[in-house]
Write a structure and sequence with these properties.
This protein is about 50% helix and about 10% strand. An 8-stranded mixed β-sheet has the order 1-10-9-2-3-6-5-4. By secondary structure, it is α+β, with helices and mostly antiparallel strands. Helix 7 packs parallel to helix 9 and helix 13 packs antiparallel against helix 14. The protein folds into 4 domains: about 140 residues, Beta Polymerase, domain 2 (2-Layer Sandwich), CATH 3.30.460.10; about 80 residues, Hydrophobic Seed Protein (Orthogonal Bundle); about 150 residues, no CATH class; about 55 residues. Bound molecules: adenosine-5'-triphosphate and magnesium ion. The site of magnesium ion has 4 residues, from loops.
């Protein structure tokens, strides 16, 4: 057994000591072990113990049953979280989804044996700083290899999610997938359709938050995962574009995703999916040009389907599709202030920053280099100056409301909505009209001339 050098945090050692003094074993496992071997600082701590959750509860003030079905609890200790899982052996599987039962064991070796990859099947005893590595995980870390533990096909048949986890680790760590493991992924990729979308989403979120998600999407293509999880992206492969575009729709999409900031999942997903409707709307003009008429609408619709399928929260899906729907703006300096105000009103102030970030990423991914930022910069400045005038941009900011309109004889109901919309458009055109008397007069005229039957 090898001794490692790492200054474990005091809190971790205290948690460890408390578990050990109660008569149980306790080891650091998972991502933290990989990080330490890669000379990186772990961001979170997974612990493995032979104490059952019931045996852990009395040892600490706060033990949250975060994954009690799988024997996982989260110990909160001095403001730190320790995800702690009882040693397990894999139960029988009825399908490629979930272990049917949790079988606890008191044997660390047994527990390591049920893990997915060699690099994930190591443990560290943090007091003695001993590395327990029965399957050559350290060697594979050194060689930057993802290798299934034992027979890869069996591992993936037990739990198909591991196929996507291999991609995730490969992307996150920039490791290569060992050939037999990759071969088994190819054969069993279709079984990913048996895995719950919630579990798939957790892995996808990690791929999307990595430095270069395109590596993951290329791997998914190579292993046949893409048509199973993202058939809409699969059909973008080979769809040529003309003009300044250097890439087909698929490559453009994944490069756009890379170019979006990794800490902004909204923009990253919007970047990945912003052109996904192109294959459907693609047409050829009589002159032989390729056009994608109103592709942003089809893309937004497909993106919505995809995000719902992966059970993303509705609010997230709405933000992403909103960006996609509005990504095709064409600002010119000749735009009037009123046109700028209408744009801000349409997109919504709170989405402007994300929309510009998406647009910059889109620019990068068009020809593979940063596009001239001057037009976008001038547009930003125009928007800033329009916002600084604090002209009204929404119904809330009008100098009249529904009550005022009722008082001058406009009935509540659809007509009222139409009148308010008309007033807002007038004020967007000319903010000086946002004055109660003026708007009431305007409203009465509009109603009488255009709406009253
Ligand atoms: P991260 O840094 O993203 O947390 P991790 O390796 O710690 O990476 P987790 O999903 O937290 O990944 O899981 C912790 C450990 O549990 C893994 O290292 C692995 O040993 C084991 N594990 C998790 N999911 C599976 C699975 N589906 N099949 C087998 N082992 C798994
Ligand atoms: Mg972890």
């Amino acid at each position: 057994m090898e001794r490692i050098r790492y200054p474990f945090p005091k809190e971790l050692l205290e948690v460890h000591t408390r578990i050990v003094q109660a008569g149980y074993q306790c080891y650091v496992v998972g991502g933290a072990v990989r990080s330490i071997l890669l000379n990186k600082n772990p961001t979170d701590w997974d612990l493995a113990t032979d104490a059952t959750p019931e045996e852990l509860f009395p040892l600490f003030k706060t033990v949250i049953p975060t994954g009690i079905k799988h024997g996982t609890v989260t110990i909160l200790y001095k403001g730190q979280k320790f995800e702690t899982t009882t040693f397990r052996i894999e139960g029988p599987y009825s399908d490629a989804r979930h272990p049917d039962h949790v079988h606890y064991t008191r044997d660390l070796q047994e527990d390591l044996k049920r893990r997915d990859f060699t690099i994930n099947a190591m443990a560290i005893e943090p007091r003695e700083k001993l590395l327990i590595d029965p399957y050559g995980g350290q060697e594979d870390v050194k060689r930057c290899l993802i290798r299934a533990l034992g027979d890869p096909k069996e591992r993936f048949q037990e739990d198909a999610l591991r196929i996507l986890r291999a991609v995730r680790f490969s992307v996150q760590l920039r490791f290569t997938i060992e050939e037999q493991t990759k071969q088994a992924m190819r054969v069993l990729a279709p079984t990913l359709s048996n895995v719950s979308f919630e579990r798939l989403r957790d892995e996808m979120e990690k791929i999307m938050a990595s430095e270069t998600p395109s590596i993951g999407f290329n791997l998914m293509t190579e292993t046949g995962i893409l048509p199973i999880l993202f058939p809409e992206l699969e059909v973008c492969r080979g769809v040529e574009q003309k003009g300044s575009h250097a890439f087909d729709v698929f490559t453009h999409s994944i490069l756009c995703c890379d170019a979006a900031p990794k800490h902004n999942p909204t923009v990253r997903w919007a970047a990945l999916l912003h052109d996904i409707g192109k294959p459907i709307v693609k047409t050829m003009t009589p002159e032989g040009d390729i056009v994608f008429h109103r592709h942003e609408q089809t893309s937004a619709q497909l993106a919505s389907n995809i995000l719902r399928r992966f059970r993303f929260p509705v609010a997230f899906e709405k933000r992403v599709t909103h960006l996609i729907l509005h990504h095709m703006f064409h600002y010119e300096d000749s735009w009037t202030d009123a046109a700028v105000r209408r744009f801000v009103r349409k997109v919504g102030k709170e989405h402007l920053e994300d929309l510009f970030t998406l647009r910059e990423a889109d620019g990068w991914a068009t020809a593979g280099k940063r596009q001239d930022p001057r037009t976008l910069t001038r547009f930003r400045e125009r928007i800033a100056s329009v916002l600084a005038q604090s002209a009204p941009l929404s119904l809330k900011e009008l100098a009249v409301n529904g009550n005022d309109l009722s008082e001058v004889g406009i009935p509540t109901g659809p007509a009222m909505g139409t009148v308010l919309q008309f007033l807002l458009e007038s004020v967007l055109e000319d903010p000086s009209m946002n004055e109660k008397e003026t708007l009431l007069k305007l409203a009465k005229n509009f109603y009488q001339e255009r709406l009253k039957i």
